[in-house]
Amino acid sequence: MTTVEQLQLDKIAKNDYQIYPLLKQRYSPRIFSDQKLTEKDVNRLFESVRWSASSYNRQPWRFIFAHKGSEGYDRIMDCLSDFNQKWAGNAPFLMLAGFKKHTDEGKENFHALHDLGLSLGNMTLQAEYMGIGVHHMAGVDWKKAHEVFNVPEGFHIATAIAVGFYGGDLNNLPEDLREQESAERTRIAQNEFAFEGGWKS
Protein backbone atom coordinates (compact mmCIF):
# COMPACT_ATOMS: atom_id res chain seq x y z
CA MET A 1 0.00 0.00 0.00
CA THR A 2 1.26 3.45 -0.90
CA THR A 3 1.94 5.56 2.18
CA VAL A 4 0.45 9.03 2.41
CA GLU A 5 3.96 10.54 2.42
CA GLN A 6 4.86 8.70 -0.78
CA LEU A 7 1.51 9.64 -2.27
CA GLN A 8 2.23 13.32 -1.68
CA LEU A 9 5.58 12.97 -3.44
CA ASP A 10 3.99 11.06 -6.31
CA LYS A 11 1.36 13.77 -6.70
CA ILE A 12 3.90 16.54 -7.34
CA ALA A 13 3.15 17.68 -10.88
CA LYS A 14 5.60 16.67 -13.58
CA ASN A 15 5.77 20.06 -15.28
CA ASP A 16 6.94 20.82 -18.79
CA TYR A 17 8.08 24.24 -17.52
CA GLN A 18 9.13 25.41 -14.09
CA ILE A 19 6.32 26.86 -11.97
CA TYR A 20 5.89 27.99 -8.36
CA PRO A 21 6.52 24.97 -6.08
CA LEU A 22 3.23 25.26 -4.18
CA LEU A 23 1.38 24.95 -7.49
CA LYS A 24 3.32 21.78 -8.29
CA GLN A 25 2.49 20.25 -4.90
CA ARG A 26 -1.23 21.02 -4.93
CA TYR A 27 -3.66 18.19 -5.50
CA SER A 28 -7.17 17.33 -4.35
CA PRO A 29 -6.95 14.72 -1.58
CA ARG A 30 -9.77 12.47 -0.42
CA ILE A 31 -7.99 11.57 2.81
CA PHE A 32 -6.87 13.99 5.51
CA SER A 33 -5.08 14.11 8.83
CA ASP A 34 -7.23 14.05 11.98
CA GLN A 35 -5.72 17.43 12.91
CA LYS A 36 -8.46 20.02 13.35
CA LEU A 37 -8.36 23.44 11.77
CA THR A 38 -8.06 26.13 14.42
CA GLU A 39 -9.92 29.43 14.33
CA LYS A 40 -6.66 31.06 13.23
CA ASP A 41 -6.27 28.55 10.38
CA VAL A 42 -9.79 29.33 9.18
CA ASN A 43 -9.22 33.07 9.46
CA ARG A 44 -6.04 32.81 7.39
CA LEU A 45 -7.87 30.92 4.65
CA PHE A 46 -10.66 33.47 4.47
CA GLU A 47 -8.21 36.37 4.61
CA SER A 48 -6.69 35.03 1.39
CA VAL A 49 -10.19 35.09 -0.11
CA ARG A 50 -10.73 38.62 1.14
CA TRP A 51 -7.75 39.90 -0.86
CA SER A 52 -8.39 38.08 -4.11
CA ALA A 53 -9.15 39.97 -7.31
CA SER A 54 -12.76 40.80 -8.14
CA SER A 55 -14.49 42.76 -10.88
CA TYR A 56 -15.22 46.31 -9.67
CA ASN A 57 -14.22 45.10 -6.19
CA ARG A 58 -17.71 43.64 -5.73
CA GLN A 59 -16.43 40.62 -3.79
CA PRO A 60 -19.52 38.50 -4.57
CA TRP A 61 -18.27 35.33 -2.87
CA ARG A 62 -20.10 33.83 0.12
CA PHE A 63 -19.22 30.78 2.25
CA ILE A 64 -20.94 28.49 4.73
CA PHE A 65 -18.49 26.39 6.77
CA ALA A 66 -18.51 23.87 9.57
CA HIS A 67 -16.16 21.69 11.61
CA LYS A 68 -16.54 17.92 11.82
CA GLY A 69 -18.74 16.88 14.72
CA SER A 70 -21.09 19.85 14.36
CA GLU A 71 -24.68 19.93 13.11
CA GLY A 72 -23.62 22.27 10.32
CA TYR A 73 -21.07 19.74 9.09
CA ASP A 74 -23.70 17.02 8.92
CA ARG A 75 -26.06 19.33 7.04
CA ILE A 76 -23.37 20.13 4.45
CA MET A 77 -22.58 16.42 4.11
CA ASP A 78 -26.26 15.75 3.48
CA CYS A 79 -26.17 18.15 0.50
CA LEU A 80 -23.28 16.31 -1.20
CA SER A 81 -23.70 13.76 -3.97
CA ASP A 82 -23.66 10.09 -2.99
CA PHE A 83 -20.21 9.73 -4.54
CA ASN A 84 -18.74 12.60 -2.52
CA GLN A 85 -20.35 11.34 0.67
CA LYS A 86 -18.25 8.17 0.29
CA TRP A 87 -15.07 10.08 1.19
CA ALA A 88 -15.79 13.67 2.27
CA GLY A 89 -16.40 12.59 5.87
CA ASN A 90 -12.62 12.13 6.11
CA ALA A 91 -12.26 15.93 6.04
CA PRO A 92 -12.30 17.81 9.35
CA PHE A 93 -13.81 20.90 7.70
CA LEU A 94 -16.44 21.38 5.00
CA MET A 95 -17.62 24.43 3.11
CA LEU A 96 -20.24 25.50 0.64
CA ALA A 97 -19.20 28.31 -1.70
CA GLY A 98 -21.60 30.61 -3.49
CA PHE A 99 -21.88 33.99 -5.10
CA LYS A 100 -24.16 37.01 -5.33
CA LYS A 101 -25.76 36.93 -8.78
CA HIS A 102 -26.51 40.63 -9.20
CA THR A 103 -24.80 43.95 -8.56
CA ASP A 104 -26.12 46.36 -5.96
CA GLU A 105 -27.76 48.17 -8.89
CA GLY A 106 -29.73 45.02 -9.73
CA LYS A 107 -27.88 44.08 -12.92
CA GLU A 108 -26.62 40.56 -13.57
CA ASN A 109 -23.03 40.21 -12.38
CA PHE A 110 -21.67 38.21 -15.27
CA HIS A 111 -18.27 37.96 -13.57
CA ALA A 112 -19.45 36.74 -10.16
CA LEU A 113 -18.68 33.07 -10.77
CA HIS A 114 -15.30 34.05 -12.21
CA ASP A 115 -14.59 36.06 -9.06
CA LEU A 116 -15.61 33.14 -6.83
CA GLY A 117 -13.15 30.98 -8.78
CA LEU A 118 -10.38 33.52 -8.26
CA SER A 119 -11.11 33.62 -4.54
CA LEU A 120 -10.96 29.83 -4.31
CA GLY A 121 -7.67 29.86 -6.21
CA ASN A 122 -6.29 32.21 -3.56
CA MET A 123 -7.61 30.01 -0.78
CA THR A 124 -6.21 26.86 -2.36
CA LEU A 125 -2.72 28.33 -2.65
CA GLN A 126 -2.85 29.72 0.91
CA ALA A 127 -3.98 26.32 2.14
CA GLU A 128 -1.10 24.61 0.34
CA TYR A 129 1.32 27.01 2.04
CA MET A 130 -0.16 25.91 5.38
CA GLY A 131 0.08 22.18 4.61
CA ILE A 132 -3.67 21.98 4.08
CA GLY A 133 -5.32 20.08 1.24
CA VAL A 134 -8.43 21.45 -0.49
CA HIS A 135 -10.78 19.33 -2.60
CA HIS A 136 -13.37 21.26 -4.60
CA MET A 137 -16.56 19.31 -5.35
CA ALA A 138 -19.05 19.92 -8.15
CA GLY A 139 -21.21 17.13 -6.74
CA VAL A 140 -23.48 19.15 -4.48
CA ASP A 141 -27.26 19.50 -4.55
CA TRP A 142 -27.40 23.29 -4.61
CA LYS A 143 -31.19 23.40 -4.46
CA LYS A 144 -31.15 21.33 -1.29
CA ALA A 145 -28.34 23.50 0.13
CA HIS A 146 -30.41 26.63 -0.54
CA GLU A 147 -33.32 25.11 1.35
CA VAL A 148 -31.32 23.65 4.23
CA PHE A 149 -29.31 26.82 4.83
CA ASN A 150 -31.98 29.38 3.92
CA VAL A 151 -29.81 30.93 1.22
CA PRO A 152 -31.43 34.25 0.28
CA GLU A 153 -32.84 35.01 -3.14
CA GLY A 154 -30.18 36.41 -5.44
CA PHE A 155 -27.40 34.08 -4.28
CA HIS A 156 -26.30 30.74 -5.72
CA ILE A 157 -24.37 27.89 -4.09
CA ALA A 158 -21.90 26.75 -6.75
CA THR A 159 -19.63 24.20 -5.13
CA ALA A 160 -18.69 22.34 -1.97
CA ILE A 161 -15.17 22.05 -0.56
CA ALA A 162 -13.49 19.50 1.72
CA VAL A 163 -10.55 20.87 3.70
CA GLY A 164 -7.96 19.34 6.00
CA PHE A 165 -4.28 18.93 6.70
CA TYR A 166 -2.55 16.46 4.43
CA GLY A 167 -2.21 12.99 5.93
CA GLY A 168 -4.61 10.28 7.00
CA ASP A 169 -4.97 6.62 6.14
CA LEU A 170 -5.66 5.41 2.61
CA ASN A 171 -7.57 2.49 4.12
CA ASN A 172 -10.28 4.98 5.12
CA LEU A 173 -11.26 5.06 1.44
CA PRO A 174 -13.25 2.43 -0.47
CA GLU A 175 -11.01 0.33 -2.72
CA ASP A 176 -12.04 2.06 -5.96
CA LEU A 177 -11.20 5.45 -4.49
CA ARG A 178 -7.87 4.20 -3.15
CA GLU A 179 -6.90 3.46 -6.73
CA GLN A 180 -8.01 6.91 -7.87
CA GLU A 181 -6.14 8.55 -5.02
CA SER A 182 -2.86 6.95 -6.03
CA ALA A 183 -3.33 7.32 -9.81
CA GLU A 184 -0.86 9.47 -11.74
CA ARG A 185 -1.94 13.05 -12.36
CA THR A 186 -2.39 14.08 -16.00
CA ARG A 187 -3.13 17.34 -17.82
CA ILE A 188 -3.76 18.29 -21.43
CA ALA A 189 -0.91 20.01 -23.25
CA GLN A 190 -0.71 23.81 -23.40
CA ASN A 191 -1.28 23.85 -27.16
CA GLU A 192 -4.72 22.32 -26.61
CA PHE A 193 -6.00 25.35 -24.66
CA ALA A 194 -3.72 28.33 -25.37
CA PHE A 195 -3.78 29.71 -28.94
CA GLU A 196 -1.57 32.53 -30.19
CA GLY A 197 -3.25 34.92 -32.63
CA GLY A 198 -6.62 33.15 -32.91
CA TRP A 199 -8.77 30.16 -31.93
CA LYS A 200 -7.57 26.78 -33.05
CA SER A 201 -9.64 23.61 -32.91
Automatic annotation (TrEMBL):
Q: Nitroreductase domain location, by residue?
A: 23-164
Say if the entry is tagged with keyword Metal-binding: no
| Pfam families found in the cross-reference section | Nitroreductase (PF00881)
Q: Which GO terms describe its molecular function?
A: oxidoreductase activity
What are the UniProt keywords, alphabetically?
Oxidoreductase
Gene3D superfamilies for the chain: NADH Oxidase
Q: Which InterPro entries match?
A: Nitroreductase (IPR029479), Nitroreductase-like (IPR000415)
Q: Where is the signal peptide?
A: none
**What family does the entry list?**
Belongs to the nitroreductase family.
- What is the protein name stated in its UniProt record? Nitroreductase
- Which organism is the protein's source? Maribacter aurantiacus
